[in-house]
Amino acid sequence: MMRLPPFTYLAPKTVADAARLLGEHGADAMIVAGGTDLYPNMKRRQFEPKVLVGLGAISELRGVRGSASRGLSLGPMTTLTAVSQHAEVARHYPALATAAGLVSSPQLRNMGTIGGNVCVDTRCNYYNQTQQWRKAIGFCLKKDGDICLVAPGSPRCWAVSSSDTAPVLWSLGATARLCGPEGERLVPVAALFQDDGIAYLAKRPDEILTELRLPPAAGTRCAYLKLRRRGSFDFPVLGVAVALQMEGGVVRAGTIVLGAVASQPREAPAAAALLAGQRLTPELILAVAAAAARPSKPLDNTDFTHPYRKQMTRIFVARALRRLAGLPDSPRDEEEVA
């Protein structure tokens, strides 16, 4: 049995107290929200904090406020189950409800939080193993080693972004409020991530994610599709988030964001640009899907082969767009890459 290492648990009642505790303990401290990813990683000695600053007692960080007409505010400690079942989210931001509802299993969604999923650690076949397994292969660059075992000649870590909700929030133009010792700052969710498997967050270690803001939903259509081996529990090996700003039957603007194909969610701006001012015809959808697959460059560091995951990027983007156009899923997409 893998056991948690010794640590001190602190339960502040306010964001200010939490920020103060993080500052006092420095590199020895980590934040814990639902703990569904952090605690298993601690058991595998991927994280070894001496102090955990728990956010569960801070009531202001929990709940969904506002309306779709004005924009919604999501508390980062709101559980994934609550986000997936929230009426306003499900009706006006269905891609986010879908993504939250596809994370892991029901038990873990009841504990896991939206903020935790946005900030969840990157994953890799060489990293997400027991300490004994990792020791046997000499460890990897992300923890205790000095070589990336996916790309030994690379100076950086290639572990992949494993969040379901981050690509959706990015595609919807959401913003994140961060609170730290230097005060608060509001940043686009798109600016919250960096393309590095170790330093994958632009959020500083002493900053706390205190709010996720969704813009007004007027004219927005959105969808999220997830590829994984099993129908439950598994992390994404591909996520596709599509958000369209519609005016009648014409796309005014669109955003396509891919998950689990890089160390950060990967936007496909050239593909989205093809949508502007156009109607969603089957021919346009195929062209956009082909363009969206170009920035998808998965490596051999998670489930399924990376050529298959790249092919599925094209198929999943086409499926998402067809659903937003009110068209049925078509086998024609699969035939294009057969």
Mean pLDDT: 95
- Residue fraction in strands: 15-25%
Give start-end ranges of low-pLDDT stretches.
none
User: What string gives the helices and strands in order?
Assistant: EHEHEEEHHHHHHHEEEEEEEHEHHH
Rg (C-alpha, Å):
20 Å
Number of extended strands: 13
**Tally of helical runs:** 13
Instruction: Describe the main β-sheet briefly.
Output: 5 strands, antiparallel
Shape: globular
List keywords for this structure.
five-stranded antiparallel sheet, alpha+beta, globular, 338 residues, 13 strands, 30% helix
What does this structure look like?
The chain has 338 residues and is α+β, with helices and mostly antiparallel strands. Helices cover 30% and strands 21% of the residues. The protein has 13 helices and 13 strands. The strands form three sheets. Strands 4-5-8-6-7 form a five-stranded antiparallel β-sheet. Strand 10 and strand 11 (250-259) form a beta hairpin. The termini are far apart.
